[in-house]
Structure formats: structure tokens, C-alpha cells
Write a structure and sequence with these properties.
It holds the Pfam family DUF3452. By secondary structure, this protein is mainly alpha-helical. The chain has helices at residues 2-10, 14-30, 37-49, 68-74, 79-93, 97-127, 151-168, 170-173, 176-195, 200-203, 230-237, 241-261, 278-299, 312-315, 332-348, 372-387, 396-403, 410-427, 435-468, 474-477, 480-498, 506-510, 515-528, 534-549, 559-565, 573-576, 597-606, 610-614, 621-625; strands spanning 52-54, 60-62, 583-584, 590-592. It is globular, with a radius of gyration of 29 Å. The relative contact order is 0.07.
Length: 659
């Protein structure tokens, strides 16, 4: 009966109603569904609502235009609870990977929006007056003149304009850095319009550092073109000027012009102003809200206007509106909500897992006062520093090195890069009105990965030449899997920097690179490039762990081929670990494995922690990619000539077990 009431309140169609009920009954027979039954039924309804349905024109449409937000409101379920239950429902119902990816993207969008909204409020208060200073509205008749907009209305309108734009750029919606810069573009536009409003002094914060110098004088005259405060906002709130201006010029302004062309925004389309004027504001608000509602229903996405609602705490789990809460006051409910949201963010950062290989206690803790946005922008600024002055082509020195090989690999390298660029752009292509944005962003990311690829390739070759002298490296530089793995690793770093948590293992799948080979290039990469920031090294470490713990042991892994080629033998721990790391009894027999968590952590600590553990200075590219010796399991790897005993070669501790 409660389910029938839920469906009636949602105006649910008969097909989805029946399908969801049957699915729920099937799950209930096979599993124990703990908690509120209506929450599980909400998961079943969402799945049924997102399936393709026939249309009048004999085609199909994705979804039945029932809002996810309404489903959750009517079932009295928070969004965080929904994500937790939806993951279990997907496993129980064995839903296809495409649906799971949609849910993961939805959750990432939510996490990004929650972080962005926490930044939006203080930035808005820096530019505009405090909303509680708004004068109370007087009741007026329909025929009376429209009143100027208030700060609260501008706050809500600016957020809706931002989330509408964010939703129309799929590659931005779950990208924290670009979403943040898109928000700065929205604030820049609204500020420029507020300056030209007749009630600008009632809207703008008189202490904002970006105001025109003569703003407070009686002779102040409005400029015909609104000023750009992107640079000022970036300096005040930790943005990257180059990235923000790029998004404004190439994506934000063309998008806003389309809104003017479609009459969704009313004003002067020549300079994108006038929509805050009393005669235009009301119509613009209605049109933008209606367009956003249509997008949410068609895409099945979260209605991100709920961040503006009074019940946002219960509906999402986000923090109480700091615009409505006096500074410095935190109720018990606010503290609990803050704790719940932090738990969700910690869970979404799946990098923080504990395994014997992590050695995380040897990594310095990050500053507790940094924010996700500041971490992301810092990582991006480090990347820009690494790539400064480079081009997406070999340097003169690298070209000379390649030409000096007995077989010049330059042309094959160029052809491979071109082919991988085409594959990557096609694999990330999206559909719709703004599909060119996806292509442009993918191409930009790949070009930067090219710069990093040639930079690291040159460093790797230089290191090998120092190690091997004048030995010809043609055999190594002709190996397709090495170059593909190295370029894919560069692309993963670029993608992760712009859009955590990156694209692994997708990046290996689209280029058909076995993770066994991708694993081998990670240490080579970190040894060759010392400019990587802490977050990137942690990300590469996590990829190593994933491969070592499970991915390398899958049925289709080439590791099994290598084992068969070696007469089904694998190295024992005694053959790859030095004697000093064994625990021996008085009888000189091994009593404890050197690969216990305690031993691994000791090895990591002595090798300098995570960064050095990943990049043992004695690991050779030649060793990794040359043909195996006659008895590869008994090779003494990681030779350290400095500590070699007389008459033999010492063995450096490997950062992880060699497989």
C-alpha cells in the first residue's frame, strides 16, 4: 500500500511501477534487505525509470522523465543513503556496467557539487552583501512596477545558472578543477551585471577588493562593458588564471550567448548584460529554472538546486546553509551532518585503503587546513610548471639521440602517438549540442600528455645511457608495449590531475595494454620524473597496489603466459629478497615471511618511504624490457654496486615483490 501511494505521488507509469515491484520481490526472496523497505523500492524504481521506453514515433527514449530528487523526497531517503543502497542493489540485480558507470558518475557529480557549493557561499559573500541585510519585500499588485532583485535572489539565480551550464558540459560535471573555474566564470558574469544595476550598492559588498576605484564616489559612471574580475577572484580564492580564462573564453561565453539567443536570458546580447535589471530578472529566472528542470528530467540527474533548500541537510547530507547560519555557531545537528558528509567524502576517496604494500604511515600527513579545491589547483599548477616551455614533439636533444640509434625509431614513435591520439579522442567523445567540448578537452589533455611523454622518454634514455654507456638502445626503443605504457601513464597523470580519480583501468583498456606491462613502467616513470606532486605519486602507488593485489592475477593476464614460458616456476621470496630481511631461528631456517606487513613497512621506511620505494634507483629499464636471461628466476635484481660484498654483487631491496 505504501508503494502504491509512492507511485501515485510520483505519477509513475504502469510499466515502471510493475517492473520495480517485481524486481523488489525477486531481491527480497534471494537476499535479506535490511532497513527501510521503501528505500530499496526507491532503488528499484530508479532502475526501472532509467530504462529505454518506446515513443510515439516508434523510437525509444532513455528514461520516463521522473525526477530522482522527487523519488528520494517521496521515499524519505537522503542522497547519501541512496548511493550506499544503490551500490548493493546493482550487485544483487547484476546490473550492466553502463548503468553502474552512470551511477558512479552521478555520485562523482554530487561530490563535486557539494565541494563547490561550500566554496560558492564564502566567495559570493566576498562579492555581494550578506543576504540577511535584504530589505523586506512589500506586497504589490500584478500591475505594479517590478521591483529590483535582492541579494538572496541573485545568490540562487547564480547557482542555478552555474549548475545548468555545468550539466551541459559532461566533461566538466565531475571535474573539480574545471567546475570550480566555471563557478568563477558565473560569479564574474553576475558581478558584471550587478555593477550595471540601478540598485548595485544594495547588492555589492562595499569592501570587495575587485570594485572599481571610483565606485563609492558620487560621480561614478557605469561602464558600457562589464569588467572582468577572473584574475582578482583567482588571486583571492586559489584559482588558476590561465585555466579560468580559457574556460571563460572558449566555453562559458559561447554558452551564455546561446542562452541569450534562445531568449532564456533577457538583456543586451552584445555584451551579455542586463538580465539582473528589474524588467528582465523575473523572466530570466523562470526560463533558466524551466530549462534546467527539463535537463534534469531528461538526463535522470540530481537536481542540484536542492543545495539551496532549507531541507538540504536531510535530503543530501550537506552542511547547513552558512548564508542562513550566524558565523561561528554550530548546533549538534550541524556537527552530525558535517560528520556524515565527511564520511561520504572519505569513502569516495577510495585511495585511502590499507594493504601490506601501502606503507602509508611513512607519508607525511597533508595540511589539515587544505581543501579539495586547493589540493586540485596546486596539483594542476605543479603540472603546468613541469610542462612549462615544452612542446608536444621531441626536443632537439631527443631527436639527436633517436637518430644515433642503429635503427631510428622516430617515425614509429610519431605514428604510434598519432594513432593513440585518435583512439583516445574517439573513446571520450560524447553526444549532444556540446559534443565539441568533449573532443576539445580530450585533445587538450592528450597534447599535454604528449609533452610529458617526450620529456620523460628523454630522461629515461639519458639514465639508461649513463648506466649502460654506449650500448645501442634500439631493441628497447622499438618495443611497442613500452611506448604505449609510458604514454598511457602520462595520460593517466594528466587526467587524474584535471579530474580525480583518473581513468585507470579505462586508460589501459582503450589502448589494449595489459596491466602487467603497465605496472612495469610506473617505477621507470617515477624514477625519471622528480617533479610529481604528492597526490599523483599516491595515485600511481594505488594503481600498483590494484595490479599486484588482483588485476595481474586475472585469468586473461599475460602473467600466466610468462609463468608458463618459465616452465611454470615462479621466484621464491629467498631469490628476490636479501638475507638481512629474513627472520631466522637458531637453526638458520626461515621462520617468517619477509612479505609480512611489518617487514614490508620496514623495507619501505629504510628505502625512504613511498616515493623512493616506488622508484628504486637501481631498477633498470633494460632489465625490465630486455629478453630474459637463461634462468630469469635466479637473476639478482636491483644490484647496488656501492654495497657489494667482496667477490659478489649486493642486492637492493625491491619496493614490492617481483612477479
Amino acid at each position: 500500500q505504501r508503494y502504491e501511494e509512492l507511485c501515485r505521488s510520483l505519477n509513475m507509469d504502469e510499466r515502471a511501477r510493475a517492473e520495480a515491484w517485481l524486481s523488489y520481490q525477486s531481491m527480497r526472496r534471494n537476499y535479506t534487505l535490511e532497513g527501510n523497505d521503501m528505500h530499496w523500492l526507491a532503488c528499484a524504481l530508479y532502475v526501472a525509470c532509467r530504462k529505454a521506453i518506446p515513443t510515439v514515433s516508434r523510437g525509444t527514449a532513455e528514461g520516463n522523465y521522473v525526477s530522482l530528487t522527487r523519488i528520494l523526497r517521496c521515499s524519505d531517503q537522503s542522497l547519501i543513503e541512496f548511493f550506499n543502497k544503490m551500490k548493493k542493489w546493482e550487485d544483487m540485480a547484476n546490473l550492466p556496467s553502463q548503468f553502474r558507470e552512470r551511477t558512479e558518475r552521478l555520485e562523482r557529480n554530487f561530490t563535486v557539487s557539494a565541494v563547490i557549493f561550500k566554496k560558492y557561499e564564502p566567495i559570493f559573500q566576498d562579492i555581494f552583501r550578506y543576504p540577511q541585510e535584504d530589505q523586506p519585500r512589500q506586497q504589490r499588485g500584478r500591475k505594479q512596477r517590478r521591483q529590483p532583485c535582492t541579494v538572496t535572489e541573485v545568490f540562487q539565480f547564480c547557482w542555478v545558472l552555474f549548475v545548468h551550464a555545468k550539466g551541459n558540459f559532461p566533461m566538466i560535471s565531475d571535474d573539480l578543477v574545471n567546475s570550480y573555474h566555471l563557478l568563477l566564470c558565473a560569479l564574474d558574469l553576475v558581478y558584471g551585471n550587478a555593477l550595471q544595476c540601478p540598485n548595485r550598492k544594495e547588492l555589492l559588498n562595499p569592501n570587495f577588493k575587485g570594485l572599481p576605484e571610483d565606485f563609492h564616489s558620487k560621480d561614478y559612471k557605469v561602464s558600457s562593458d562589464p569588467p572582468c574580475i577572473i584574475e582578482k577572484l583567482c588571486s583571492l580564492h586559489y584559482g588558476l588564471v590561465l585555466e579560468a580564462k580559457g574556460i571563460k573564453e572558449h566555453f562559458w561565453k559561447p554558452y551564455i550567448r546561446k542562452l541569450f539567443d534562445k531568449k532564456l536570458l533577457k538583456g543586451k546580447d552584445e555584451n551579455l548584460t542586463g538580465f539582473l535589471d528589474p524588467g528582465n530578472f523575473g523572466d530570466s529566472v523562470k526560463a533558466i529554472n524551466k530549462a534546467y528542470e527539463e535537463y534534469v528530467l531528461s538526463a535522470g540527474n540530481l537536481d542540484e538546486r536542492i543545495f539551496l533548500g532549507e531541507d538540504a541537510d536531510e535530503e543530501i547530507g550537506t552542511l547547513t546553509r552558512c548564508l542562513n547560519t550566524p558565523s561561528g555557531m554550530e548546533t549538534a545537528e550541524r556537527v552530525q551532518v558535517k560528520h556524515n558528509l565527511q564520511q561520504h567524502f572519505d569513502r569516495s576517496k577510495s585511495l585511502r585503503i590499507t594493504t601490506p604494500l601501502t606503507g602509508r604511515k611513512y607519508i607525511k600527513e597533508s595540511n589539515p587546513y587544505v581543501t579539495p579545491v586547493s589540493i586540485a589547483t596546486y596539483s594542476l599548477s605543479r603540472l603546468h610548471t613541469m610542462l612549462a616551455g615544452l612542446k608536444n614533439a621531441p626536443s632537439e636533444n631527443l631527436e639527436q639521440i633517436l637518430r644515433s640509434c642503429s635503427r631510428d625509431p622516430s617515425q614509429s614513435i610519431a605514428n604510434r602517438v598519432k594513432e593513440m591520439h585518435e583512439v583516445y579522442c574517439q573513446s571520450t567523445q560524447s553526444e549532444g549540442e556540446f559534443s565539441n567540448f568533449s573532443k576539445d578537452v580530450a585533445s587538450k589533455h592528450f597534447r599535454r600528455a604528449e609533452m610529458l611523454y617526450y620529456k620523460v622518454l628523454e630522461s629515461v634514455i639519458e639514465q639508461e645511457r649513463k648506466r649502460l654507456g654506449d650500448a645501442d638502445l634500439s631493441a628497447i626503443l622499438e618495443q611497442d608495449v613500452f611506448h604505449r605504457s609510458l604514454l598511457a601513464c602520462c595520460l593517466e597523470i594528466i587526467t587524474f590531475t584535471y579530474n580525480p580519480p583518473g581513468n585507470f583501468p579505462f586508460i589501459t583498456e582503450i589502448f589494449d595494454i595489459p596491466v602487467y606491462h603497465f605496472y612495469k613502467v610506473i617505477e621507470v616513470f617515477i624514477r625519471a620524473e622528480d617533479g610529481l606532486c604528492r597526490e599523483v605519486v599516491k595515485h600511481l602507488n594505488h594503481i600498483e597496489e590494484q595490479i599486484l593485489e588482483s588485476m595481474a592475477w586475472k585469468r586473461e593476464s599475460v602473467l600466466w603466459d610468462r609463468i608458463r614460458e618459465n616452465e611454470n616456476k615462479v621466484p621464491t621470496c629467498e631469490e628476490v629478497m636479501p638475507p638481512q630481511y629474513f627472520e631466522r631461528s637458531a637453526g638458520n631456517s626461515v621462520v617468517g615471511s619477509p612479505l609480512t606487513p611489518r617487514r614490508i613497512n620496514e623495507v619501505r621506511a629504510e628505502s625512504g618511504g613511498l616515493g623512493k620505494g616506488l622508484s628504486s634507483p637501481a631498477a633498470s629499464l633494460y632489465d625490465r624490457y630486455s629478453s630474459p636471461t637463461a634462468n630469469p628466476t635466479r637473476r639478482r635484481l636491483f644490484a647496488d654496486p656501492e654495497s657489494a660484498p667482496e667477490g659478489g654483487t649486493a642486492v637492493r631491496v625491491p619496493p614490492q615483490p617481483v612477479v
